[in-house]
């Protein structure tokens, strides 16, 4: 058997799913940047789910659930996407090989823990990572364009199979997806305005207190109540927020910057100054989230006389800022 | 965040990798900038990793002293907890809790051990054994 190498322009991305979407579409001749994919899918949000525990600590997310981005972008832009899951592992690997043999790039959902090329400290049991397979060597190793890494990587077949079929929360069940067809030309303008409006509407939160602005304030209250807990738990809790925000996916501030970058690109595309102003406001939101992360860690280090109330207040200021960004976004209408 | 403010703190946890962040350049527009890590983030990561390490070290000592089964150590070493191990093996959490006691674990069938082995990428013999430790009390 010879090496199979499919032409791909690997691009490092801030986040796996948006990165995969962008790379797959660009390879088909449709120029959608990572921030554009993020913005168009209205993926920016906030979720604090105290009842979903990971390692004993609650889940906090800053974007829509896995698969929402790729599905939404493809649906909106009329892109033909084929997705398949497998109950039989061997069949799942064969299907991957078949697509590669046909010269198609293949998107996969995998576990992070079982991918040997991940740094040790970043390996944990998270099953919704996304990557692209662009070939296979004669020895049977897969060639992978993993969007969060600078360079392409190689992975033994056994490890990739394990990563694709890892069980547990968000299990991928071997999920693979192939872009079959993209439209030759797309007018992004109407989609941009619709997506901005949808994001703004979602930013308020749903009925339950766990989402959007309500969710942020809910978490701020919880931080205030941590005074009743042991110092060790206080630290682990705050550290968990910072990790969920800055490390997992691309983090809260990271997603806020990515959204601002989308607004910036959208402003260039449409010539709409309102979008440019919103981008600037989005940057301030991201900056404030970073300051919150800094305060949370400072509290953990006890280097400064910082109280839990102050950390909580900082988070409330993030909520206030997002509220005013929401109002700004709602005021933007297509010319 | 301004491009010039993108942290370059050479996080040990990145192991030489870089991360992409969107930041604002001199002209006021966004571009992707690579970061070697942020001290704030790496502190939080290190805290979590240290906690896991401590838990697995404690489990190793307890397992060597016969207070818990070797499964307790391997579970934590491989960054599983009761919830995630239950989700991946299909056992109930209360079943796994029982398996963490040496007496029950010693009587487990090879079939059940194989379920753990499959999920944890270990042979049954490996699952039953502990690393040799010089200061082991056994």
TrEMBL record, chain A:
- The Butirosin biosynthesis protein H N-terminal domain covers which part of the protein? 15-147
Q: Where is the DUF4872 domain?
A: 158-329
Protein name per the record? DUF4872 domain-containing protein
* Annotated source species: Litorilituus sediminis
Report the InterPro entries cross-referenced here.
BtrH_N, DUF4872
Domain of life according to the entry: Bacteria
Q: Which Pfam families match?
A: BtrH_N, DUF4872
Automatic annotation (TrEMBL), chain B:
What domain of life is recorded for the organism? Bacteria
Name of the molecule in the record: Uncharacterized protein
